[in-house]
Amino acid sequence: MRLTLFVGEASAATDAAVATLRRLVEDQPDAFELRIIDVHRQPEAAERHRVIATPTLIRELPPPVRRIIGDLSRHERVRVALDLTADLAENLTRGTQDPSPDPDPEA
Q1: Does domain 2-94 have CATH number 3.10.20.30?
Q2: What is the mean pLDDT of the chain?
Q3: What is the pLDDT confidence band of residue 73, given thresholds at 50, 70 and 90?
Q4: In the chain, what are the helix, strand and coil shares in percent, each to the nearest 5?
Q5: Which has the closest alpha carbon to 8: 44, 58, 49, 43?
Q6: What are the residue boundaries of the KaiB domain, all occurrences included (predicted)?
Q7: Between 86 and 68, the higher pLDDT residue
């Protein structure tokens, strides 16, 4: 899963967002690619992704793209917003994205 967190100036909201995402990634480090982008240092990245408020978290992969804007301090709410169910997380760790069973090759 590819996640990009856009942050602005240092604040409690920024610190909470970073802490929540680091905790999420620590739960399953092989399942995530996390980038943290400071919009003041990389304004072109914020513009390219149409970020107008911080913190903004974008789940780029797997599709569909999801955006979470604002309070990211609650770990479980972020998991739900990212649609990170236990089945999806397990499949991401194994390197697949489709939690459905393989089709029967005999059919």
Answers
A1: no
A2: 80
A3: confident
A4: 40, 20, 40
A5: 43
A6: 4-84
A7: 68
Measured CA to CA, the distance from residue 2 to residue 7 in angstroms comes to: 16
Closest CA to 98 of 107, 106, 87: 87
* Between 37 and 105, residue with greater pLDDT: 37
**Size of the chain, expressed as the number of residues it contains:** 107
Contact 93, 29 (CB under 8 A): no
Domain locations along the chain: 2-94
Average pLDDT value for residue range 5-34 = 86
Alpha carbon distance 10, 8 (integer Å): 7
Q: What is the DSSP letter of 39?
A: T
Instruction: For residue 65, give the nearest of 46, 52, 82 by alpha carbon.
Output: 82
Q: Residue 103: what pLDDT?
A: 42
